User: Fold this.
Amino acid sequence: MRYLRFFLMFSVIFSLIFCGEKESKYPVTIETIDGVKIVTNPDFPRDGTTAYELEEELSIGGDVDDEDYVFHKPYDMKVAADGKIFVLDWGDSTFKIYDNDGKYIRTIGGRGQGPGEFEGLVFFSIGTDGNVYVQDSMNQRMAVLDGQGEYISGFRIEGGLPYGIATDQNNYVYSGIQFQDDEVRKLRILRFNAAGEEITDYGLFQLVQPVITKRTQDTVSSMMSRHAATTVWAVDKEGKLYAGYGDKYEISVYDPEGNLFLKFGREFTTVENKYADKLGQPDKVGVFNVINRRWLFDESNNIWVEMFIKDDPEEIVYDVFSPEGVYIKQIRVKYRINQFFGGKAYCFVRDEVGFVSVKRFKLVEMINQ
Assistant:
């Protein structure tokens, strides 16, 4: 028994020493400037790069005859606390709801201007209270539905068009609002309570500008380049707002009262855009771009930042940072992840013909470099 105690004590001491050496060897720089913690990581992660195979457990939709399982133009999905899967179908301004086993429950919403109807259904979030918080961009309003899709309440979004939504564990609602200011597109992020009363104004953020111009004999038009930098933002369960503009790999973190308390990022060499002169695009490719606006949090509250890849990628690459801003790992997977729930990843998957399925995967580690 005495030898066993000695062995266990030695093992614990060895583990603590080993972990401490591993942490200390990673060359992260941490300093505090004017009350803001600044975390600067090198261009490689502390724990290396890991590739995961996505082992399918559930599939909903695809090439099927049943309209209840057909998605027209799916844009987003969320999993509620009870395991129900909500799929936002932008094509007909509806949500399709499925149980944890993928069985169809009901469709809610629809195109219109009445309670529970939407003209521009793009963004939504599910609160811890089970309610569905929906942005209707065309009608410039926020609607609150219960878990069955019944309309509870709503309020107007003033000052511009709704542009992104999130909720936290206390069911505060975070809304992005985009508008023009002296021909420059800007983003304001606000926090509301469920009654629509503004609680916090996080200020103004820059949005991507139209950078590709097409001219004909009679018209001049412009569009956003998929290579252009833009502001990406996300809110964790504790109500911390993460926001960053893509011309620099730096993410600012605000507390629920709007106070900036943390900045983090990593060393990053901006990619050259070989089509810049021909298309009139920026000569550099930003790190947060039009094509990868979404960040997500895993169930340990680590933030997954999707890396921009210019061509159609064979895999999606995420930089994973701890809540303290340390670059802990780079993850490579086959499909873009919409949400983690119950230790599983939920994704949209498009087949070769163009049909879209919602799939639930188990992540199986394949490579650890």
